[in-house]
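Lab channel / #folding
Pinned by the channel admin:
"Please post every new chain as: sequence first, then the structure tokens as a reply. Keep commentary short and put observations after the output so the thread stays searchable."

First post following the new format, from NK:
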Amino acid sequence: MSKLALMFPGQGSQAVGMGCDLCAAHPQMRDTYAEASDILDFDLEIVCAGRPPKRWPGPTSRSRPCWPTRSASSRILAEAGLQV
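Reply from TO:
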């Protein structure tokens, strides 16, 4: 049996543009970012593309894009048949 390890962003590994390619290629990513944007009260897709919002809503908001990126990646993999 083969094993597969998945690495997700977090703890300082975030990078500008993180998730942009997935966002362009997968509707699940865009949908997840849209859901998160409504909750976070800023456009997550713009933030991930490297354009900060007019205001950051809190001190942890720079790490907040990690969770939706991870969630959307899991959705994409699950739809492709990988059990996550």
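NK: The mean pLDDT is 77.
TO: also worth noting, The radius of gyration is 13 Å.
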